[in-house]
Design goal:
222 residues, alpha/beta, Rossmann fold, putative n-type atp pyrophosphatase, domain 2, four-stranded antiparallel sheet, 6 helices
């Protein structure tokens, strides 16, 4: 099946791309929404402009669409770029990295229904600890680019998701109910390497901004 991927560059959308490929689908394009609203209900924002580098090392065409990020209105921008992907790349399905967000999944499903496309969510309802372990077993290299919940702070920015990360984040779930995979918006990530990449990306520069327990790291990659 010819698929377009809703792609943020974070661990879930890249892993969903990887699984779609394993399931013998044809990945014809990546679709990225660039939101001006850092508090967007739908879309990942830290270092979103760097998805072009990921698309290049995967050799997959990238379609981007800017949005003001206003609740519900941003869905019109999403539908517009999916419609473009259907026309230009003959996609038959949209793949998402949705895990638990019914808000996101239901709205993407509605757009797919409107455009007569299938909607494939390979990570839906996956156990969060299993998800992190599967990422490590699949040789994904992922760094944290944003944190947005107590007791996370700027010291977590740039940390790689590895066994030590999992060891450190599990007690935070037990004590503070921090979702260990960040599914509640507690943190966001960026994939530097995975089996889909022709070469690993490296962080060449970074800019950190924020306060208290809300921090973002904008990165340059090469």
């Amino acid at each position: 099946m010819k698929c377009g991927i809703l792609f943020s560059g974070g661990k879930d959308s890249v892993f969903a791309t990887y699984l779609a490929k394993i399931y013998e689908n044809e990945i014809t394009c990546l679709i990225t929404i660039i939101s001006e609203n850092p508090e967007s209900y739908m879309f990942h924002t830290p270092s979103i402009s760097k998805v072009k580098k990921q698309a290049d090392v995967m050799n997959i065409p990238l379609l981007t669409q800017k949005t003001k990020g206003r609740k519900e209105e941003e869905l019109e921008d999403l539908e517009s770029v999916i419609k473009k992907a259907k026309k230009e790349y003959n996609i038959e399905a949209i793949v998402t990295g949705s895990v638990e967000s019914a808000y996101q999944a239901s709205r993407v499903q509605k757009i797919c229904d409107n455009l007569e496309l299938d909607c494939f969510n390979p990570l839906w309802q996956k156990n969060q600890l299993e998800l992190l372990k599967d990422l490590l077993e699949s040789k994904f290299k992922i760094v944290i680019t944003g944190v947005f919940a107590y007791p996370l702070n700027k010291l977590w920015l740039g940390r790689e998701i590895n066994e030590k990360f999992i060891e450190d984040v599990i007690p935070l779930y037990d004590k503070y109910r921090i979702n260990i995979a960040g599914e509640g918006g507690e943190f966001e990530s960026f994939v530097l390497d995975c089996p889909l990449f022709s070469k690993a990306l490296k962080i060449s520069d970074k800019k950190i901004q924020g306060k208290n327990n809300s921090w973002r790291m904008e990165i340059e990659v090469a």
